[in-house]
Amino acid sequence: MGFGNVWTTFWVILNQILERVAIFLRRCIFTVISIGSIPNHIAFIMDGNRRYAKKKKLGKGAGHRIGYMALTSMLKYCYELGVSSTDEIVHAVEKSCEEKWDEMSSKSSNAAGCDLGKLLVAENGENLIKSTDVEKNLHTVVTSNPDMLIRTSGEARLSNFLLWQTSSSYLYSPSVLWPEINLWHLLWAILNFQRNHLYLVKKRKQLLFLKED
Q1: Which of 21, 85, 174, 183 has the fewest Cβ atoms within 10 angstroms?
Q2: Is 115 noted as a catalytic residue in this protein?
Q3: Residue among 47, 102, 115, 147 flagged as catalytic
Protein backbone atom coordinates (compact mmCIF):
# COMPACT_ATOMS: atom_id res chain seq x y z
CA MET A 1 0.00 0.00 0.00
CA GLY A 2 1.49 3.33 -1.09
CA PHE A 3 1.74 6.47 0.99
CA GLY A 4 -1.13 8.06 -0.94
CA ASN A 5 -3.48 5.17 -0.14
CA VAL A 6 -2.52 5.28 3.53
CA TRP A 7 -3.19 9.02 3.65
CA THR A 8 -6.56 8.59 1.95
CA THR A 9 -7.56 5.80 4.35
CA PHE A 10 -6.52 7.96 7.30
CA TRP A 11 -8.72 10.86 6.17
CA VAL A 12 -11.69 8.57 5.55
CA ILE A 13 -11.43 7.12 9.06
CA LEU A 14 -10.92 10.58 10.57
CA ASN A 15 -13.98 11.96 8.77
CA GLN A 16 -16.08 9.05 10.01
CA ILE A 17 -14.94 9.67 13.59
CA LEU A 18 -15.64 13.41 13.33
CA GLU A 19 -19.09 12.73 11.87
CA ARG A 20 -19.97 10.41 14.75
CA VAL A 21 -18.73 12.98 17.26
CA ALA A 22 -20.84 15.67 15.55
CA ILE A 23 -23.93 13.44 15.67
CA PHE A 24 -23.36 12.74 19.38
CA LEU A 25 -22.97 16.45 20.17
CA ARG A 26 -26.12 17.31 18.20
CA ARG A 27 -28.07 14.68 20.11
CA CYS A 28 -26.89 16.18 23.39
CA ILE A 29 -27.91 19.68 22.28
CA PHE A 30 -31.27 18.46 20.95
CA THR A 31 -31.97 16.64 24.21
CA VAL A 32 -31.45 19.86 26.16
CA ILE A 33 -33.46 22.07 23.79
CA SER A 34 -36.29 19.51 23.68
CA ILE A 35 -37.09 20.34 27.30
CA GLY A 36 -39.02 23.28 25.85
CA SER A 37 -41.67 23.25 23.13
CA ILE A 38 -40.47 22.04 19.73
CA PRO A 39 -42.31 23.18 16.58
CA ASN A 40 -44.02 20.26 14.87
CA HIS A 41 -44.05 21.97 11.48
CA ILE A 42 -41.36 24.32 10.13
CA ALA A 43 -41.63 26.13 6.78
CA PHE A 44 -38.61 27.52 4.92
CA ILE A 45 -38.35 30.29 2.33
CA MET A 46 -34.91 29.74 0.82
CA ASP A 47 -33.93 33.29 -0.10
CA GLY A 48 -30.50 34.44 -1.27
CA ASN A 49 -29.04 31.72 -3.51
CA ARG A 50 -28.23 34.08 -6.40
CA ARG A 51 -26.91 36.79 -4.10
CA TYR A 52 -24.66 34.23 -2.42
CA ALA A 53 -23.21 33.18 -5.79
CA LYS A 54 -22.65 36.83 -6.71
CA LYS A 55 -21.10 37.55 -3.31
CA LYS A 56 -18.67 34.63 -3.64
CA LYS A 57 -18.12 35.24 -7.40
CA LEU A 58 -19.33 31.74 -8.27
CA GLY A 59 -20.59 30.43 -11.59
CA LYS A 60 -24.20 30.34 -12.74
CA GLY A 61 -26.28 27.87 -10.72
CA ALA A 62 -23.60 27.35 -8.07
CA GLY A 63 -25.58 29.25 -5.46
CA HIS A 64 -28.59 26.99 -5.92
CA ARG A 65 -26.44 23.85 -5.72
CA ILE A 66 -24.95 25.02 -2.43
CA GLY A 67 -28.43 26.05 -1.32
CA TYR A 68 -29.63 22.51 -1.99
CA MET A 69 -26.88 21.18 0.29
CA ALA A 70 -28.01 23.63 2.97
CA LEU A 71 -31.58 22.36 2.58
CA THR A 72 -30.55 18.72 3.03
CA SER A 73 -28.65 19.70 6.18
CA MET A 74 -31.67 21.57 7.58
CA LEU A 75 -33.97 18.62 6.86
CA LYS A 76 -31.51 16.28 8.56
CA TYR A 77 -31.38 18.49 11.65
CA CYS A 78 -35.18 18.74 11.73
CA TYR A 79 -35.47 14.95 11.50
CA GLU A 80 -32.98 14.45 14.34
CA LEU A 81 -34.77 17.08 16.41
CA GLY A 82 -38.15 15.42 15.93
CA VAL A 83 -39.84 17.99 13.68
CA SER A 84 -42.58 15.99 11.96
CA SER A 85 -43.19 18.20 8.93
CA THR A 86 -41.36 20.76 6.79
CA ASP A 87 -42.39 22.90 3.83
CA GLU A 88 -40.10 24.49 1.26
CA ILE A 89 -41.28 27.21 -1.07
CA VAL A 90 -39.80 25.44 -4.12
CA HIS A 91 -41.82 22.30 -3.46
CA ALA A 92 -45.00 24.26 -2.87
CA VAL A 93 -44.68 26.28 -6.08
CA GLU A 94 -43.75 23.32 -8.30
CA LYS A 95 -46.51 21.11 -6.94
CA SER A 96 -49.10 23.83 -7.37
CA CYS A 97 -48.05 24.57 -10.94
CA GLU A 98 -47.86 20.95 -12.07
CA GLU A 99 -51.06 19.60 -10.53
CA LYS A 100 -53.47 22.55 -10.58
CA TRP A 101 -52.88 24.46 -13.81
CA ASP A 102 -55.36 22.49 -15.91
CA GLU A 103 -57.94 22.50 -13.12
CA MET A 104 -57.68 26.27 -12.67
CA SER A 105 -57.96 26.89 -16.41
CA SER A 106 -61.05 24.70 -16.62
CA LYS A 107 -62.76 26.40 -13.70
CA SER A 108 -61.94 29.85 -15.04
CA SER A 109 -63.53 29.10 -18.41
CA ASN A 110 -66.61 27.60 -16.79
CA ALA A 111 -67.06 30.56 -14.49
CA ALA A 112 -66.83 33.13 -17.29
CA GLY A 113 -70.57 33.08 -17.93
CA CYS A 114 -71.75 32.64 -14.35
CA ASP A 115 -73.89 35.09 -12.50
CA LEU A 116 -71.72 36.37 -9.65
CA GLY A 117 -74.81 36.81 -7.50
CA LYS A 118 -75.35 33.06 -7.51
CA LEU A 119 -71.82 32.37 -6.25
CA LEU A 120 -72.05 34.28 -2.99
CA VAL A 121 -75.57 34.23 -1.58
CA ALA A 122 -75.42 35.64 1.90
CA GLU A 123 -79.12 35.75 2.65
CA ASN A 124 -79.87 34.12 6.02
CA GLY A 125 -76.24 33.02 6.17
CA GLU A 126 -76.77 30.32 3.53
CA ASN A 127 -74.07 29.52 0.97
CA LEU A 128 -71.71 31.98 2.63
CA ILE A 129 -68.07 30.97 2.23
CA LYS A 130 -66.51 30.41 5.66
CA SER A 131 -62.89 30.14 6.74
CA THR A 132 -63.32 26.40 7.29
CA ASP A 133 -64.42 26.05 3.64
CA VAL A 134 -61.21 27.73 2.53
CA GLU A 135 -59.04 25.50 4.74
CA LYS A 136 -60.66 22.32 3.42
CA ASN A 137 -59.63 23.24 -0.13
CA LEU A 138 -56.02 24.24 0.53
CA HIS A 139 -53.15 22.11 -0.80
CA THR A 140 -51.82 21.85 2.77
CA VAL A 141 -55.03 20.41 4.23
CA VAL A 142 -53.24 17.08 4.81
CA THR A 143 -50.78 18.63 7.26
CA SER A 144 -50.89 21.03 10.19
CA ASN A 145 -50.22 24.74 9.78
CA PRO A 146 -46.57 25.74 10.26
CA ASP A 147 -45.60 26.57 13.82
CA MET A 148 -42.59 28.51 12.57
CA LEU A 149 -41.54 30.09 9.27
CA ILE A 150 -37.86 30.72 8.57
CA ARG A 151 -36.93 33.11 5.77
CA THR A 152 -33.27 33.91 5.21
CA SER A 153 -31.59 37.14 4.01
CA GLY A 154 -33.32 39.22 6.70
CA GLU A 155 -36.58 39.59 4.75
CA ALA A 156 -39.79 39.68 6.80
CA ARG A 157 -42.19 39.48 3.83
CA LEU A 158 -43.80 36.16 2.90
CA SER A 159 -43.89 36.58 -0.90
CA ASN A 160 -47.39 35.01 -0.99
CA PHE A 161 -46.08 31.80 0.59
CA LEU A 162 -48.65 30.06 2.84
CA LEU A 163 -50.31 33.36 3.77
CA TRP A 164 -53.40 31.71 5.24
CA GLN A 165 -51.54 28.94 7.05
CA THR A 166 -48.91 31.16 8.70
CA SER A 167 -51.31 33.67 10.27
CA SER A 168 -50.32 32.44 13.75
CA SER A 169 -46.81 31.16 12.99
CA TYR A 170 -43.58 32.50 14.47
CA LEU A 171 -41.53 34.28 11.78
CA TYR A 172 -37.75 34.13 12.07
CA SER A 173 -35.64 36.11 9.58
CA PRO A 174 -31.88 35.62 10.00
CA SER A 175 -29.72 38.04 8.03
CA VAL A 176 -27.67 35.25 6.42
CA LEU A 177 -28.33 34.10 2.87
CA TRP A 178 -29.84 30.64 2.44
CA PRO A 179 -26.59 28.80 1.51
CA GLU A 180 -25.04 30.22 4.71
CA ILE A 181 -27.71 28.90 7.10
CA ASN A 182 -26.50 26.31 9.59
CA LEU A 183 -27.42 24.40 12.73
CA TRP A 184 -26.90 27.38 15.03
CA HIS A 185 -29.42 29.49 13.12
CA LEU A 186 -31.98 26.70 13.47
CA LEU A 187 -31.30 26.35 17.20
CA TRP A 188 -31.58 30.11 17.74
CA ALA A 189 -34.87 30.13 15.82
CA ILE A 190 -36.26 27.36 18.04
CA LEU A 191 -35.12 29.15 21.21
CA ASN A 192 -36.97 32.29 20.06
CA PHE A 193 -39.99 30.15 19.21
CA GLN A 194 -39.97 28.73 22.74
CA ARG A 195 -39.70 32.23 24.21
CA ASN A 196 -42.82 33.32 22.27
CA HIS A 197 -44.69 30.01 22.50
CA LEU A 198 -47.32 31.09 25.04
CA TYR A 199 -48.21 34.15 22.97
CA LEU A 200 -48.46 32.03 19.80
CA VAL A 201 -50.76 29.52 21.53
CA LYS A 202 -52.98 32.37 22.73
CA LYS A 203 -53.06 33.88 19.24
CA ARG A 204 -53.95 30.52 17.69
CA LYS A 205 -56.83 30.03 20.14
CA GLN A 206 -58.17 33.50 19.32
CA LEU A 207 -58.12 32.75 15.59
CA LEU A 208 -59.81 29.40 16.16
CA PHE A 209 -62.54 31.10 18.18
CA LEU A 210 -63.13 33.63 15.39
CA LYS A 211 -63.38 30.85 12.80
CA GLU A 212 -65.94 28.96 14.85
CA ASP A 213 -67.97 32.08 15.61
Answers
A1: 21
A2: no
A3: 47
